[in-house]
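Quick one, T. Sequence first:
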Amino acid sequence: MVFERPILIFILAFSTPTLVFSSSHYNFPIAKPNNPNCNDTCGHIQIPFPFGTTPECSFARQFRLTCNHTASDPPKLLWWNTNFEITDISLDGQFTLMKTIAHDCYQSNGVQSSNFSSGIRLRPHFTLNNTANKFTVLGCSAIAAFTGISLNQTFITAGAALCSSEADLSEGTCNGAGCFQIDIPTDVSEYDVVIMSLTNYTTTSGFSNCTYAFAVERSAFRFSKDNLTNLLPRQRLPVVVDWVIGNGTCQDARRNATGYACVNANTTCYHPTNGHGYRCRCEDGFEGNPYLPQGCIDINECLNDTLHDCNKKASCTNNIGNYTCTCPENYEGNGIGEDGCKWKSPKDMKIAYVLIGVGSGVICLLLGTILFYLEHKRRSQNKMKRKFFHQNGGHILQEKLAKREASPDTVIIFSSSELEMATNSFHNSMIIGRGGFGTVYKGVLVDRRTIAVKRSIRVDPTQIEQFINEVVILSQINHRNVVRLLGCCLETDVPLLVYEFIPNGTLSSHLHNEAKARALDWSMRLKIAAETAGLLSYLHSSTCTPIIHRDVKSDNILLDHSLTVKVSDFGASKLVPVDLAQLSTVVLGTLGYLDPEYMQTNQLTEKSDVYSFGVVLLELVTGRKALCFDRPIEEKSLSNYFLYVLKEDLLVKIIDEKIVGLGNMEQINAVCKLAKECLNVKGEDRPSMKEVTMELEGLILREKHSWATNVDDEEEMKSLIPNDHDGTSGVGYDSIGMDHIVLPINGGR
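Structure tokens:
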């Protein structure tokens, strides 16, 4: 039911601020069996029967769903022929819909954008869950009404959110100051949301110029001051909907056996607390989908000690629907609980003593054999460890530590047993990353420090001394934006490097994940760029021996819990002698980030890192991957496509819309120009990392000390497009292309 705005004003004018007018995972089969067309998943969402995507796969017409393969990847599960996305379906009688929010916004220039009504009409057998959802109003001069049908009667619940300054707002609290929440009535089968503003934000435009209202799952929303500005008109929030079978009771459904859903074995019928109809569930001792034939499967309680109460001495035997406890021989009792099994004296103690003696002798013999084998194995392992330690340059490293070339507190030589214990013997479940140079494991030391252990897949015996020198140099890098090298282990066939553990993932995982990318606003991305550039500048010019990273990319830029940059993976790095301007090396790196001049000449310089960093800048500005084979051929390489759209004055096409906002277009323009300079084909035409760092830090400094101005979005976008109409952009991007060089697709990583 929808109220016109004049009616809503009348209701609210004569009332108090609030008026009330009366992702699941299954380990058992859930789809309809014996039909290959009945898929049990759509993307990452499981589809349990009675729901289905075709008539033969669903229980009834109202349980029909649509798996949309064309809208996105992975495909989205939609509620039949609507655009409501379903993100979870529970056999307990709930599913979750993603629903738009009602909003009314006034810009400072007087432009209004609004969607005054945002509701939903649920079909029969579906009601809005009154305990999992809350009706929420956000704003500083906001009035909203939640109206609809409950038990075939019209209801209306209204509320207001008011505030006069940011000081009135309280994080996580919806008490009417900026945020107001009310409970939802039971049995709501249809609802609508209507909103309006009392003052058109004339007094609060400085910090709130919008009104929002929506029904939302209470566990999915926590009020923040930023909600008054960061909610988007097209944003969708989760709503929990209850579903039932039929309209009548269990007794009514049993009388009509042809439509009764709980006829399967080990299934029972029950009535929900919200809405009409009934649901099915498996009886105690069973689990599964109660709506499928033979869908309820016996639970083996004996496999899980928390599911049975047998005595520790008793044996548990699983039965259909339950279990039994049996005491062992020479014990008596029912086998249940602490006193379930009691000792029963044997009839012939002499026989018992003889058996005990023989058994003890056999056990001692076995123990002696096992101990001898373990001692022999221990000595063999220690001999092998000493061999590997010497082979991997352990003595060289010890000599350097003894000569005080490195502090013993700086480089820790770990034993292989320490790292095996920390990584659960390098179990696959501890793997957190793989690359061309090896595998990275998560580990926890005895002192509870969490570490990352890099295990190489190959080693060059002729480069052991150089490897030891690099370990010593890298361990002495003391910079807040480097993943710190704690030490190494040389007792294995290949050296193991031990780093501090960074738990928050890579920059790539944040940029290319829709939910995480929204948390990276422009200021945060600019900060990440400046910190990365500062670290590379430090490596190039501030260490005792200059270091070229050689594999700068978003996958090697980690973010800690405060989103501070931590650059990692120095496996391909090179130490540059102070009297050598460039190194002739085998080309290593990752396709999409590789310096084209380096690929042609095999001459590695600090400017190779500058080129790779330019690609990272493009990722931060566009949100695109450096190399994406799913895009059209002209868009596969981000750097080439960027230079193309720059030349064609189409740069606005590829800027990430999540970072575009009032007042930051000049900065985005400056960063694009800086990326353009970094991507020059000739290394000598690129800036140094020191110059790049100064430019980025200057942008941040100017942002902190600038006056805020309101600029029309269209004007800002025009300022971003370069005016080089004479065709001399300064970047010869078409003089060398990706099709001139053929490399492995992972660039050796």
